[in-house]
User: Which sequence fits this backbone?
């Protein structure tokens, strides 16, 4: 067996025998290497008294407490050790048309090193693994599962602007904002990555399985740090959030309730030193309460225009876009539907949605969606009497 195969199989063993974000396993693997760490575990067996003080010290777990932590971890790994069949895992990976990549591969996203001992030993990837290597040149778009029309409209605008700049869209494949971000990326033909909380064969939620397959077949990628057959569980969703944050150059929260899991993704990003952007919502919306909480309690930035998401990603040139009149003509700044709505608006006289439908020839749903986009860009404003163009 070649050295590369030995290390790859050992990394697969550690990915299967541990739960995501196992820092003790990460310390052991980083100090000994996956293959030597696997040999060490086999030699120790169930004899926790065989763990030497030198090993404990080497892992930075000095003292009696450190020894107990390592012994507990060994006992934890031993519950699965003899159930891991590497050949079967390889076979299942191949049947899925997937790959198992490790840090020495060209496709490995190097920014995962920022997770320290919490970094995965390897990743299962379905789709284009080269997209994963470039994930740092992009942003995570996350938010509420019960997304509102406002949240979905804003998500579409953000992803459209990212697509114009060739940025990768990373999310979790869930309902709501996640699914909207992936769908918009597919429509705009920009790369998108879905990070799964279960094995790479567990397309969850099942109702999004067609969407996830579309991501795989369209030049995007499905990614998981858990072995095939691993079921999505609450603890794995929470661990998955740190992976979304670490893969991305920045994280954007579009909508989030007060205790939303999206907030954990944002907090992981902040801990990693990644930029975080937040879309503010109506103060009456429970689906934006978590966004407002994040803005109050953290150094996250307010996103007030779609261009802000581009500015958030490191290495992007800052571009100032003025709404309404400016150095560029309206025809250069707005799409045809937006222009039709703008043509029906005035700066001084308020216009109702019904009047805009008549003036533009658009359906009410089209007018409302377009008004949301234009308001988010600062091109228009609303008061109690109706809609106006901004000054």
Assistant:
């Amino acid at each position: 067996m070649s050295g590369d195969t030995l290390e790859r199989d050992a990394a697969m063993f550690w990915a299967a025998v541990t739960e995501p974000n196992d820092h003790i396993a990460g310390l052991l693997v980083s100090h000994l290497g996956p293959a030597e760490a696997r040999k060490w575990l086999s030699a120790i067996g169930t004899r926790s008294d065989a763990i030497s003080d030198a090993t404990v010290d080497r892992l930075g777990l000095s003292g009696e407490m450190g020894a107990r932590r390592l012994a507990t971890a060994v006992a934890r790994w031993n519950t699965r050790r003899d159930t891991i069949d590497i050949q079967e895992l390889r076979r299942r990976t191949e049947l899925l048309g997937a790959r198992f990549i490790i840090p020495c591969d060209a496709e490995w996203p190097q920014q995962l090193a920022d997770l320290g001992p919490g970094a995965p030993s390897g990743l299962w990837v379905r789709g284009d693994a080269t997209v994963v290597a470039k994930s740092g040149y992009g942003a995570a778009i996350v938010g509420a599962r019960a997304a509102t029309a406002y949240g979905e409209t804003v998500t579409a605008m953000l992803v459209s602007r990212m697509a114009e700049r060739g940025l990768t869209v990373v999310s979790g494949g869930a309902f709501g904002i996640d699914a909207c971000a992936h769908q918009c990326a597919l429509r705009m033909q920009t790369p998108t990555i879905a990070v799964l909380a279960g094995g790479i064969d567990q397309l969850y939620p099942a109702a999004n399985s067609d969407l996830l397959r579309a991501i795989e077949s369209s030049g995007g990628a499905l990614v998981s740090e858990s072995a095939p057959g691993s079921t999505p569980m609450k603890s794995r969703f929470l661990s998955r959030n740190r992976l979304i944050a670490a893969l991305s150059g920045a994280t954007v929260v579009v909508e989030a309730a007060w205790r939303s899991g999206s907030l954990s993704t944002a907090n992981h990003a902040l801990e990693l030193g990644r930029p975080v952007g937040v879309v503010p919502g109506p103060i009456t919306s429970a689906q934006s309460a978590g966004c407002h909480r994040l803005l109050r309690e953290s150094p996250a930035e307010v996103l007030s225009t779609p261009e802000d998401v581009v500015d958030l990603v490191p290495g992007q040139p800052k571009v100032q876009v003025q709404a309404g009149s400016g150095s560029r003509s309206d025809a250069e700044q707005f799409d045809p539907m937006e222009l039709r709505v703008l043509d029906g608006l005035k700066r001084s006289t308020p216009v109702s949605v019904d009047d805009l439908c008549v003036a533009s020839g658009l359906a009410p749903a089209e007018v409302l969606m377009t008004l949301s986009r234009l308001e988010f860009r600062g091109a228009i404003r609303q008061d109690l009497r109706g809609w106006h163009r901004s000054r």
Observations:
- The chain has three domains: 3-84, 110-312, 330-389.
